[in-house]
Write a structure and sequence with these properties.
By secondary structure, this protein is mostly helical. The chain is built from 17 helices and no strands. Helix content is 78%, strand content 0%.
């Protein structure tokens, strides 16, 4: 298995930008849990915590594609440095406002203002595409590596965030996340050797959106439903573990979900599967929908952790095949924006899922809240079938 990934790091500069990005990846995984636990603890409301988290992610969904377009037009380093500074200052204001006697709207405003944080994952994937042009097998392994690194960070990040927020101070998780984001983003931007070149096409047609490319919109909408799985899972798990008297276990439980995904992602990256990428995508989304349903049967934190680890086995392959699809559909000059757009769908879904999950917990209880990710995973499968299923394939064949 390791031979597949060893070939990736033989490329000059690949190891340097991968390691440099790790602190920023970890910070991204800490932000959500840190904000939810911080607001819920200091303001005594899971509904408010979910809404604040949703508002921040919605703002990222709006600014993310714009930041991605700027990266394609001006280069990664020129955009990453100022965007990171603005995001860090705004996140610091959020940490202050959460514990101060200020109106709740300040939390929404501060979190929204922090949305300029650049998408390190999309920029790293764009670098792999430049390093291995015309090498689909290596780009598949690179996408798998990127997703597995994301999942490993999401395994460690929530645990660290929950521990800091519950044992040090409610704002501690967010403060540490800010420091990691700044360090990682600036270190990544400093790796100019592997930075993708600015393409003339991105400058000549600045208003053309990758959403106009057939297939990109379908992936984005599928990601919207998938994001609802992740967003609701985060809020519901924090509430459920607290209802059982184990609030610090939330990070561990969410880490198991990411751990299962990381293991599956690393193995998936070594496979050379027959068939087309759209077929792989459909199979992975279907597996995610099926494996998410047993979560409703969880009776304690140990059963929940086991079921979420199993459910996570399908999430990384789904993300990997989706990014492979984006690479096949979007031209190199728009790749960062294209990947950011699909991620935007994910973030909008996370935003909606966090809000809906918090509302369900308030109305029907923490355990019932797990119906939200179960239903959302089924919706993701329906959308994927509508976009890439047999009926959609026949329509495209007739159109050509």
């Amino acid at each position: 298995m390791f031979q597949s990934y060893r070939r990736l790091f033989a490329a000059p500069g690949a190891l340097a930008f991968t390691v440099a990005a790790l602190p920023a990846r970890l910070a991204i995984s800490m932000f959500g849990v840190s904000v939810v636990v911080m607001v819920a603890t200091l303001r005594d409301s899971y509904a408010l915590a979910g809404s604040v988290s949703a508002a921040g992610l919605a703002a990222i969904a709006v600014t993310g594609p714009w930041i991605g377009r700027l990266v394609d037009r001006h280069g990664q380093a020129r955009v990453t440095v100022p965007a990171t500074i603005v995001s860090a200052v705004a996140a610091g204001v959020l940490a202050f406002c959460a514990g101060a006697d200020v109106p709740a709207w300040t939390l929404f405003a501060a979190y929204a203002a922090s949305s300029t944080s650049p998408n390190i994952g999309a920029m790293a994937r764009a670098r792999w595409a430049v390093l291995f042009p015309g090498r689909p097998e290596l780009r598949h392994s690179a996408n798998a590596l990127e997703q597995s690194l994301d999942e490993l960070c999401f395994m460690a990040g929530p645990v660290l965030a929950a521990l800091l927020c519950t044992t040090v101070a409610p704002q501690a998780g967010l403060i540490v996340a800010i420091a990691l984001m700044v360090a990682g983003s600036l270190a990544f931007a400093a790796q100019r050797r592997t930075q993708p070149p600015v393409h003339a096409e991105a400058t000549r047609e600045p208003g053309r959106s990758p959403l106009r490319i057939r297939g990109v919109l379908e992936i984005t909408l599928t990601f919207l439903a998938t994001g609802a799985v992740f967003g609701s899972m985060e809020v519901v798990t924090v509430a459920y573990t607290e209802s059982l008297g184990h609030p610090a276990a939330a990070g561990i439980i969410l880490g198991l979900l990411a751990g299962g995904s990381a293991v599956a992602g690393l193995l998936f990256g070594t496979l050379r599967l027959p068939g087309s990428t759209p077929v792989h995508f459909l199979i992975c989304v279907a597996a995610m929908a099926v494996l998410m349903q047993p979560v409703l049967l969880a009776t304690d934190v140990w059963v929940l952790g086991t079921l979420l680890f199993i459910a996570g086995l399908a999430t990384a392959p789904t993300m990997i095949t989706s990014m492979t699809l984006v690479h096949e559909l979007v031209p190199q000059s728009r790749l960062t924006e294209g990947m950011t757009l699909t991620t935007t769908g994910l973030l909008i879904g996370i935003s909606a899922g966090a809000s809906i999950g918090g509302w369900v917990v308030e109305v029907a209880g923490a355990h019932t809240g797990y119906a939200t990710p179960a239903i959302a995973s089924g919706l993701a499968l329906l959308v994927a079938l509508a976009g890439f299923g047999p009926a959609a394939f026949n329509r495209r064949r007739q159109a050509t």
